[in-house]
Design a protein that fits this description.
With about 120 residues, the chain is mainly alpha-helical. The chain contains 5 helices and 2 strands, in the order H-E-H-H-E-H-H. Helix 1 crosses helix 2 and helix 2 packs across helix 3.
């Protein structure tokens, strides 16, 4: 899969994350077709979130924590998630058993191959 195809798929997956739910970088990567590309998801978020209007704040690390540093977006991401009803527990962790987005099945994400 080319980088352009992965990027387009990752953007689509991120757009599908519903309000009040989160996904992990690795989960987005897997749904986009390459479960080993979590760092690429970080790049996609950094590069395309503003221009594509992505709900960037709904993507967290595999421990359910915000990866951004305090004073460098951490507080904004936490506030946006809290406004959507996502709760933070001890240590600033999100309970992924409660708030992790799990598509009913991977077919829910239907990529139109002709668009890529």
């Amino acid at each position: 899969m080319s980088a352009n195809v992965f990027t387009a798929r990752a953007i689509e997956v991120i757009r599908l994350i519903p309000r009040g739910r989160v996904a992990t970088y690795g989960g987005v990567a897997a749904l986009a077709g390459n479960g080993r590309a979590a760092r690429q998801v970080v790049r996609v978020l950094h590069t395309y979130s503003r221009n594509e209007g992505l709900p960037w704040h709904r993507v967290v690390n595999r421990e359910g924590c915000i990866s951004l540093a305090r004073g460098n977006g951490y507080e904004e991401q936490m506030e946006l998630l809290m406004r959507e009803g996502v709760e933070f527990g001890p240590g600033g962790r999100i309970d992924l058993d409660v708030f992790l987005w799990k598509p009913a099945n991977k077919r829910q994400i239907d990529f139109d191959e002709t668009c890529f």
